[in-house]
Amino acid sequence: MTTRARSFDSAAALYAAARPGYPPALFDAVEELAGRPLAGARVADVGAGTGIATTLLHGRGADVVAVEPGDGMAAEFRRANPGIPVVRGDGDRLPLASGAFDLLTYAQAWHWTDPARSVPEARRVLRPGGALAIWWNDTDSTVPWIAEQEERLRVFFGAQQGESFRTLPQGLGEFTTRTVRWSRRVTLDAHLANLASHSAFLMLGEARTRAYFADEREVLAPLFPDGTVEEQYVVSLSVAVV
């Protein structure tokens, strides 16, 4: 798992440029479920990567610090976000003071942790009444072309794209969930770059990755003749107040 998680370091610039952000409605839901506004909240964004979520939390007025273990991702974060602090560490060993935070966020990152370690760490650094927010941003498989693309990916990778690793942790109280649907319009090149930034392709090797995307471009180009793809997403948010 660590090798796959660290694969992003070699593609940090691609990750920053190609990965989608998050809609304002997601952060509205975080505030609702956490029971407090983000403005003025002390927040740690764990597994921050290049800062996609961190930047948006900062934009909502949060006093946010990023936690990121990877050399390449942390370097890209610092380049793009010179005004936001980033510390080196991960959810299993948070380099943060006890009882100092109103909110911990894991944007597409909780599954890289060991809950036996990350749950006690979350409880340690949160203030009484603080909250843990976990979310994943997935393509909307109810959209026909997306479902067909996901099936091609399952066939190509031998159906290893399971979701069982997303089980919510025990020991933090009851989670409340929300689902947020949204979309973005990008070029076909940007869409393919987004796919290429995922760990399965980063671990695959250049030759097989190049061959896959040549075939995928041939499939998608007739569907989007103007070269613009509307990527449709579903964000699954879970928040526990501890």
- Ends distance: 28 Å
**Structural shape:** globular
What percent of residues adopt helix (DSSP H or I)?
Answer: 25-40%
Which strand order do you get reading across the main beta sheet?
Answer: 3-2-1-4-5-7-6
Name the CATH homologous superfamily of the domain at 2-140 and 166-185 and 232-241. Answer: Vaccinia Virus protein VP39
Q: How many beta-strand runs?
A: 7
Query: What CATH architecture label of the domain at 2-140 and 166-185 and 232-241 applies?
Result: 3-Layer(aba) Sandwich
Average residue pLDDT: 93
Coarse structural class: alpha/beta
As for the CATH topology of the domain at 2-140 and 166-185 and 232-241, it is Rossmann fold
* CATH level 1 class label of the domain at 2-140 and 166-185 and 232-241: Alpha Beta
Order of helices and strands: HHHEHEHEEHEHEHHHE
In this structure, how is the largest beta sheet organized?
A: 7 strands, mixed
Briefly characterize the structure.
The chain has 242 residues and is α/β, with parallel strands linked by helices.
Give me some keywords for this one.
25% strand, Rossmann fold, 242 residues, globular, 38% helix, 7 strands, alpha/beta, seven-stranded mixed sheet
Outline the structure in words.
By secondary structure, this protein is of the alpha/beta class. The chain has ten helices and seven strands. The chain has a domain at 2-140 and 166-185 and 232-241: Vaccinia Virus protein VP39 (Rossmann fold, 3-Layer(aba) Sandwich). Helix content is 38%, strand content 25%. The chain has a seven-stranded mixed sheet with strand order 3-2-1-4-5-7-6. Helix 6 (115-125) links the parallel strand 4 (101-107) and strand 5 (126-139). The two termini are 28 Å apart.
